[in-house]
Amino acid sequence: MFCICLAPATCAENKLVYPGKISDEVYLPEGTRIRMGEAPPGIAPPAKTKKELLERGRGVYAANCAACHQANGQGIPKAFPPLVRSDYLNADKVRAIRTVTGGLQGPISVNGEKYNGVMPAWTLSDEDVAAVLSHVYSSWGNSGKEVSAKDVKTHRVKGSSAKVSE
After folding, report:
1. Is the confidence at residue 63, as pLDDT, over 70?
2. What is the mean predicted confidence (pLDDT) over 33-50?
C-alpha cells in the first residue's frame, strides 16, 4: 500500500483512497491491444483525371513526405531540402523517381544550399509515386511536369520492395 497523506493509518480505512485490492497487473489505460488506424483496402485504382492524380498525390505527400519536407514544401534548413522551386527536383524527372523509389544518401545541392543526409526509399506503388511527384511538380513554383505510373515502372530502382502497379 502506498499512501501520501499525513495519517497513513487512516488510508487503509478510507476506501476512496485505497480500495483494498492488490493487483500485479500492468496499468494499461488504452486497453490491452494495439489500435491500428483503418487503412484503405488494397491499392487504389489509377487516377482517371489530372485532378484525381493531384488529389491522390496531396494525400501521399501528407502521409509520407511532409514530416521532413514540411506541408508547405519549405523543408528544414540544413537538414531536409526544400521542394519549393527546387532546381534539383526540376532538373531531372528520372532522378526524382529514382530518389523516391531507391532513397538517397550523401551530399546534394538544392537551390544553392548543401545538404548531406539520408532519404529513405519509399515502398509506394507506381501510382502513388507518380501521384506524389506530379503533386510536387504542380506545387510551389515547380515545373508542372506530370509523372505517370509507366514512368515510375520504367525507372523504379530495382530491388525496392514496393508493390508495383500493373
Report:
1. yes
2. 64
> Does an H or E element contain 114, and which?
strand 113-119
Mean of per-residue pLDDT scores for the chain: 82
Give 72-99 pLDDT, tens digit per residue.
999 999 999 999 999 999 999 999 999 9
Residue with cell 493487483: 23
- C-alpha 48/C-alpha 111 separation (Å) is 34
Contact 101, 129 (CB under 8 A): yes
Output the DSSP codes for 23-70: --SPP-TT-SS-------SSPPPPPSSHHHHHHHHHHHHHHHTHHHH-
| Grid coordinates belonging to 60 | 501521399
Q: In this structure, what are the phi and psi dihedrals at residue 109, rounded to the nearest 5 degrees? A: -120, 125
Residue 29 and residue 57: Cα distance in Å, rounded? 37
CA nearest 134: which of 148, 152, 146? 146
**Superfamily of segment(s) 50-166:** Cytochrome c-like domain (1.10.760.10)
